[in-house]
Amino acid sequence: MRANDRPHVDENAPVNTRIQDILGEPAKYEAAFAAFQKAVAAHDAKAVGALVAYPFAATVGGRQVKLPDAAAFVRHYDVIVTPAIANVITRQRYEDLFVNADGVMFGRGEAWLNGKDADVRVIAIQSSN
What's the per-residue H, E or C state across 47-102? Predict the structure, then answer.
């Protein structure tokens, strides 16, 4: 059998099944995942900020703060999306996402997406330490 003759295997099928069973429409999660990774890879604070659910809890200057909107998120972007966290987000493979009722998890919890019955948004970005 030649390589081109092998049947196509959808690597995303298992994670999409888990998303469907727990959270809802997988296509919304795939789109949000791709947009989030692309924005973080481009260091596009405005694009990332547009994907975040507000108010957003973040650690800024060692203190837990609630950011009310995208403008506040953008002002603190470099403190929230550190190079280490950006690396986790950009290297995460969709088919390896952990899925539970809290959403889909990047890495060891550095970022989470959720949107049950709504738009899928970034609900957490944090250090996993």
Answer: HHHHHECCCEEEEECCEEEEECCHHHHHHCHHHHCCHHHHHHHHHCCHHHCEEECC
State the residue for tokens 């650690």. 59
Answer yes or no: are the C-beta atoms of 67 and 58 closer than 8 Å. Answer: yes
The reported pTM is 0.89
Q: Give the pLDDT means over successive 10-residue stretches in the chain (129 positions).
A: 58 92 94 98 98 93 92 96 97 97 96 87 87
Collapse the DSSP code of 124 into the 3-class scheme (helix H, G, I; strand E, B; otherwise coil) and give the result: strand
Q: What is the pLDDT of residue 9?
A: 60
Long-range contacts (CB closer than 8 Å, 24 or more residues apart) made by 1-7? none
**CB 110: neighbour CB atoms within 10 A?**
22
Q: What is the CA radius of gyration of the chain?
A: 16
